[in-house]
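Limitations
The structure tokens in this dataset are predictions for the assembled complex, not deposited experimental models. Users should treat interface geometry with appropriate caution, especially where small molecules or nucleic acid strands are included. An illustrative entry is reproduced here so readers can see what is and is not provided.
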Amino acid sequence: MAKLEKPVSIIKPVGYCGGCGHGVIQRLIAECLEELGMADDTISVVDIACSYWSLEALDFDAIAGPHGRCAAVATGVKKVRPDKTVYVHAGDGSSYVIGLAETCYTAIRDIPITMIVVNNGIFGMTGGQLCLATTLIGDKTLSSKKGRTKEQAGQPVDMLNVFKNFDVEYVARGALYDAKHVDQTKRMIKRGLENQRDKKGFSLIEILSNCPTNWKMTPVEAAEKVKNETEKVFPLGTYVDRGGAK
Amino acid sequence: MHSDYMLMKGNEAIAEAALRAGCRFYAGYPITPQNEILEYMASNMEKWGGTFIQGENEIASMSMLWGAAAAGARCMSSSSGPGYDLKQEGISYLSSYNLPAVIVDVMRYGLGDGEITEGQDSYWQAVRGGGHGDSRQIVLAPASVSECAALTYEAFHLAEKYRNVVIILSDGAISQMIEKCTLPPTYEHDKDKFDWTLTGKPRGVKKNKVTNLDRTIGREAADTIMKEKFVAMFENEQRWEEVMTDDAELVLVAYGISSRVCKSAVRQARKEGLKLGLLRPISVWPYPRKAFEKMPDCVKGYVTVEMSLSTQMGEDILLACKHSKPLYGHLTGVRVPTAEGLIEDCKQILAGKVKPVEVL
Ligand SMILES: Cc1ncc(C[n+]2csc(CCOP(=O)(O)OP(=O)(O)O)c2C)c(N)n1
Ligand code: SF4
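Predicted assembly:
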């Protein structure tokens, strides 16, 4: 079997916890950009949360969009540098909670960026509090110690059902719990980047990930949870594909 | 449109001057009394080849600005009162990232939703509070429509010179009045001229990481850069205007709309033999301390003339004169002061019938 080459855009080992999906996602982004020949004109926007590591790990011009504001920061960058590839790598807390307005209106404006949202069901960077948009009912977090209830925090929301109502280019959800799904997710990321290359509109790819550290699970247990529980609430697949599948 | 003189509103002068200064990115959210800036940008930005965005709120507009500034554009946002509160997050981040931008605060009077009319009670917020953390912003206060244009034009230059946020502190009256305005020449900004911007570079070229400065160069180095910047701005950027201060017994100190009334008050008072003078700070940060250093000995006191309840600028006057003279306050809150009221007050002060300011 051919040895998998590490993308050259990854220049530094960084501090994601072992078994965390963020590192896989970062690698997929780098692989896709290189395979598409787009790595030489890319600007990345990361959130101040766990995805921040990617600012250091990847050899791209990069800006940190302080917690929640990534989509708006990316809008500013893309408007000034319309010929460059601008992607966002941010958490679900950032994109769907504190920054929901920013993410929604970037989609509503159909800004041609590729937005990658990491749904790990929790606030990773701050140590494991509830994420209003994605923590599953019953899940224990530092701010829902007995398990999330609807009375306490409402239900988690499939935000892609919100985004699919906007006139955008592409909305899809992938997962990472086995090789098949990593591959499927990679194709989604690639699609989102191609759309940008082809001067099409806003692409949003949500990725079901995990946070073994704050879920207090081994990476294998965390993968099982995504497969058996998370995916039931957040179904995988393509929600919008304006241009039609290729 | 491109003639050098126009009859226009203060707000329009700010917007037109920004475009002429090479501003090619504007994002903002409507709030009275600064709406004309946003509307002017919406109508005219396209002609200049730039981007206008009506943001979903002030926070998002500021976030767009820090993306645009990092990508090399000259950019601006504007707001007032409650909207300016929301801008402070962005001002703090732009400062921590060492990014240049121009932010306009057209003050409106009052706490909370307050009034939509003129006021000067956001002085402290503008000159002391960029947002959380330790940062300083140059704050320029125009007193005429022409000055709205001139200071905005200059603000872009200063923002780049120091890689810092520059604030134009206007108020409802200056922003809404219509006067003949001298317009600056056009300047084409090259978004590729700096080596620190995000351009999307090919492999082998060193990449730029735009984030809190301390994360890229370390806390100590970042603090040193900041401190040196504060000192340089303080030393180089003090601006003011004086009217008949040479032999003044009482010096009125006022900026923006209040200073215009003070100017007529000084002229009128002189006709009655009352020796008033005016010191008008144009930069309210850095505060023009150099002007106070050379005030003549005949000055018996300073009168801060402000549309606020607290003597917000009064603090700066006492610091600037090193508490060498008493400070009196003519504080009119929501009302624009009148020359008659001011002269009457000054007569009382000179007759020893008014106590200096008690609460700062
Ligand atoms: C305005 C603001 N509020 C709160 C924080 C603290 N904070 C940093 S990251 C974060 C949550 C991160 O969660 P998420 O966006 O889901 O990303 P993850 O770390 O899980 O990848 C919070 C609350 C902040 N930096 N700024
Ligand atoms: S805290 Fe959670 S999300 Fe963050 S790096 Fe660790 S495992 Fe990943």
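Some entries come with short summary sentences. For this one: Chain A touches chain B at residues 8-9, 39-43, 45, 52, 55-56, 59-66, 69, 72-81, 83-85, 101-102, 104-105, 109 (CB under 8 Å).
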